Amino acid sequence: MYQAARTVAASSSSRLHSPVAWSRKSVQEGYYDLEAGETERTPLLYVRDNGRYRAKSLHRANDPNRVHPVALGLMVALLVFLLIGVVIGVYLLLLTVQRPWPVSHPFFLVERPAWWQYPVALEAATLDRLAVTNVIVLHTDSEDCLDQERCVRYLQNTERSCWAARRDHIPYNFLIGGDGVTYEARGWKSQHGFVDLPGRNTTLVVGMIGNFTDRQPAEVQYAELKAFITESIRRLSLSPQYRLHGAVNATRPSRDGTIALYSQLERWPHWKGFVARDQP
Fold first, then answer.
1. Looking at the domain that runs over 107-275, which CATH code has it been given?
2. How, if at all, do strands 203-208 and 174-176 pair?
3. Which of 4, 73, 251, 273 shows its CA 20 to 30 Å from the CA of 21?
4. Based on the number of CB atoms within 10 Å of its own CB, is 240 exposed (0-12), middle (13-18) or buried (19 or more)?
């Protein structure tokens, strides 16, 4: 019995003086070693996992590449607010563009290369678009064209005759046919070719294809003219404060002054009267 007591005492002494040995045994028994904990910077917590013990760190290191959910939400919200601000800004900018009337008729445009595919390119003085403040409307004093084929034929014949007579191009900026389509002649970037009309650098000349001295154009031509003016303003090729004019022949003012074409245009916004033409 004395020998057994000495053995137990020695065992207790070794456990007190050997923290490593105590730690190993305590791990097997599921206890936490206080002495070992004093030498560790991060205490270890032993948990049971499928019959085995594993250690978890109580203090996990933060991942430097991880984005905090709150910060991510704030960035997304800021981006949404910026997009909403851009949309509102564009909408307010569009509201500043004055429209002379609500346009229900769509704008149809046939560009010059679609009807004139010949090697002679358009050569005309460049139009100062920032200074364009006038629109002069006149009729072509010719036969009507009620479909695209006839309207294109009229433009081609006029281009040929102008080139043969004076080596110049068709003088109109645009023409509007009875089919309700706008045809580009010299366009928005070139000066008109009428030597007897004023403001070559500040004016767009629009021809209504047909003879409208005693009768008015079709309603679709008037509607297309409105759509053309609105489109010109939208393209920043015409000032929203433009002035609308008709052309009067100086040698026959009484006749041209009552031309049926202008009986409706005189009631339009921005109408400013007639300009005189010098040709008979």
1. 3.40.80.10
2. parallel
3. 4
4. middle
| Of residues 225, 218, 247, the one with CA closest to residue 145 | 218
Tell me the C-alpha distance between 202 and 136, whole Å: 11
Report the range of poorest mean pLDDT among 38-52, 73-87, 168-182, 249-263.
38-52
Per-residue confidence (pLDDT) for residue 65, from 0 to 100: 66
**How many residues are there in the chain?**
280
Q: What is the dihedral of CA 268, 272, 278, 280, to 10 degrees?
A: 30
What's the CA gap between 198 and 180, in Å, rounded? 27
Look at residue 75 in the predicted model and tell me its pLDDT. 85
User: How would residue 16 be classed by pLDDT, with cut points 50, 70 and 90?
Assistant: very low
